[in-house]
Amino acid sequence: MQAFARWPGKIKPGTETEAVVSTLDVFPTFLSLLNASLPPGLDGQDITPILFGKEEEYDNNKRVLFFWRDGFADGPLPAPYGRMDVAAVKVGHIKAWFWTKSAHYNDDVEVFHDPPLLFDVNADPAEAFPLNADDYQQLISQVVELVEEHKQSINWGLPLALAKDPNFRSCADKDNHCRTWGEEVKEKTAAATD
What we know:
With about 190 residues, the protein is of the alpha+beta class. It contains four helices and four strands, in the order ααββββαα. It has a four-stranded antiparallel sheet, covered by helices on one side.
């Protein structure tokens, strides 16, 4: 996947990187640019070293990304959501798949891989040719341990999409009891138009 960043006078035009980043990095990076402190436990990382040409300050081989998937056959969440689990993990340029399936909600059954299927995403971006797991035993052990640590760090409440907390409702429709259409906003709007 590719991404583009442009900031005249700050980001050098035409520079490229193969650093592993995520959309989860957008918020921590903006907080860093604003000199705001990063809340503890925040997903994502500050990627300003990559943006500003100081990639040596960013250890790409230690970056770990977890790929979650729902829709599994059994699990703690109510139907039709099924079980959520880590389907894959990316450490640097190696991606390890624990669960595979033809597509998210297709009828075929998910397949668990032990050891996980490994792919070098730089050499094989389509993830078509698995690496020989025997050559990566240390990495596989590390990935299994990382997944277990990650799962233990999760608060296993319902995902925000399933929670009924009104703070997470869409604010596009004022008839949806949207918090931004409370009395305070109505009063300010009325005062501004008088």
